[in-house]
Amino acid sequence: MKHTIKILSSLFALIFATASFSIDCFAADTELTINSDAKVNVGDKIRYTMYLADTKETIIGFQLSVFYDDEYLKLDKDSLSYEKFDGVVQNPNLENEIAVNWTNINSPADFSKKAKFMSMDFEVVKGGETDITQFVSEMYGDDMTYLKSYTWTYSITVNDEVVVSDKAPEINSDQSVADKYQGGIVNYIDGKGEENSPQQDDEHQSVLGERQTEIAVGTNVNENVVDVTKDGSSNQLTTILYIAAIVVIVAAVVIILIIRKKGGNRSQNSADNNEQSQ
Fold this sequence. Notes:
The chain has helices spanning 2-30, 175-181, 233-277; strands at residues 31-34, 38-41, 45-53, 61-67, 73-81, 89-94, 97-103, 115-124, 128-130, 133-140, 151-158, 161-167, 170-171, 187-188, 206-207, 220-222, 225-227. By secondary structure, the chain is an alpha+beta fold. The protein is globular and about 50 Å long.
């Protein structure tokens, strides 16, 4: 009898251990950890929202990229939303990257207080661990110099339930990314600018690359948002626009000089005629 009980106890222990192991394996296959903070499950629809605050001047232009891994997250390309910007130029068709830029000197955006910068939706397609990161190339105000006071944060929601909030974003520290997208502004891992972050804080470290910013400009307009392509037409269009602007400016200067010269000649002729009549 005792022998039978021992056998049954060992059998139950083995079954329990096997079941626990299976549950753990299943959880590992279906649970995804994002940025070491958010715990979500395969099939969940999540929203990643970026916030900006503490700017001392209004923003008239920016360029940034958001990076993700489509092995774990499937982007809803139609979900990109911007609360304070119209006419945003974006490209959600890049591999594991969303490129965005915007400029409008007539309608500057105020982020002196915390406000939504942009958001995007994903579907969780695989368990494991992954990151959603960002890298800001340019962000400037009226004086056309880069912002030195700002605070970036992000949140993640699942079915309108907040699972992460007020966290400093992950800065993409891949050197090839930093070298490709480094612009005038400095990215810090604590999400703060150089003027509003404690300089003695070890968390206030910069991610820098060689400055050689690539700016993408699109061709297909849809509801004030442009989906840009990767075929290089963006740089060509930008160059053409710059050349056209220079030609217009030069032509205007020439016309003004001609008008002034003619006006001067008329004044001189009038003066000569007056002298002769006297």
